[in-house]
Design a protein that fits this description.
three-stranded mixed sheet, L-arginine/glycine Amidinotransferase, Chain A, alpha/beta
């Protein structure tokens, strides 16, 4: 199937309401952002539910269509609140399912949710591409966590880590018609950053990136050149801002056709007045306080949103 032209911004997102949310011990080794909460699992779940529902309300109040599906209690899926790691939805009707590193995250892949989008919500699913077989070889690609997609220009940016491997990345790129810009990125201690969407976001005309995290000069230059070549203005983030999840924002389209940038309260509070001004000129900025989700699970607003680009029937 030939890839069709796809807009960069979605006006609808899928979100999974957590049932047994807590910091996942199987992901802690690769995610240095998680495990900062000392709350009990029950306290983490209760706070995460409140933060989740508040984010849903904020998005809907600002003109974004939000489809909410409840998680199931069994099997236990502590990270189900982050659906963008297991699925992506594309404008040609294709749905991609991804290979996950942590065994207890693999049960997040739910074809029944994909079917519900088709049968209940009127989206057209023409093909499901299942890349999960790469798990058998120990190769992973955790969706739009591992990749930041420039959908309009067919570019997949990816920092390599234990959760992002070239074999699976190349398989995605070949099947979906993307060029790959792969690089190595590390935190201030020299440890590989687990997901690309922690350090960068690509919107329609604006990209946000912690470029100092890209270890090699040639790779950094290649990433910045590709962003310039695709017409993107860039905001550079510091390590302090990276650690506040400022890179984990998502640009969306409202039902009125306006650009909107969604991020966390911690993230926006870390930005300078000049950075905020650039963001606000690009589109309306909204922020939700999701401190428990960020501290416990090491992911932020972007991770909670799986953009729905599927055509509607």
């Amino acid at each position: 199937m030939t890839a069709c032209t796809e807009p960069q911004l979605a006006s609808a997102v899928l979100m999974i309401r957590p049932v047994r949310f807590e910091s996942n011990p199987l992901t802690a080794a690769s995610n240095r952002f998680q495990g900062r909460s000392r709350a009990s699992p029950e306290e983490q779940q209760g706070a995460a539910m409140r933060e989740f529902d508040a984010l849903v309300d904020l998005l809907r109040d600002n003109g974004v269509t939000v489809i909410v599906v409840d998680d199931t209690a069994e099997p236990h899926k502590p990270d189900s609140i982050f659906p963008n790691n297991w699925v992506s939805f594309h404008a040609d009707g294709r749905v991609v399912l991804y290979p996950m590193e942590a065994e207890n995250r693999r049960t997040e892949r739910r074809v029944d949710i994909v079917e519900k989008l088709d049968l209940q919500f009127g989206y057209t699913v023409r093909e499901i591409i299942d890349l999960s077989h790469h798990e058998q070889a120990g190769h992973y690609l955790e969706g739009t966590g591992s990749m930041v997609l420039d959908r309009a220009n067919r570019v997949a940016y990816a920092c390599l880590s234990s959760r992002t491997h070239l074999d699976a990345l190349g398989d995605f790129a070949q099947r979906m018609g993307y060029d790959v810009v792969a690089f190595d990125a590390v935190d201030r201690d020299g440890v590989a950053i687990y997901h690309t969407n922690v350090l960068m976001n690509v919107g329609e005309k604006l990209a946000v990136i912690c470029d100092e995290a890209i270890r090699r000069d040639d790779q950094r230059a290649a990433v910045m050149k590709r962003l310039r070549d695709t017409g993107h203005e860039t905001i550079s983030l510091t390590y302090d801002q990276l650690e506040s999840f400022a890179g984990n924002m998502l640009e969306l389209r409202t039902e009125d056709g306006e650009r909107l940038v969604a991020m966390s309260r911690q993230a926006i509070d870390s930005l300078t007045s000049r950075q905020r001004s650039v963001l606000e000129k690009n589109g309306k900025v909204i922020a939700a306080a999701i401190d428990t989700i960020e501290a416990s699970a090491g992911g932020s607003v972007r991770c909670m949103l799986a953009e729905i680009h599927l055509p509607q029937s």
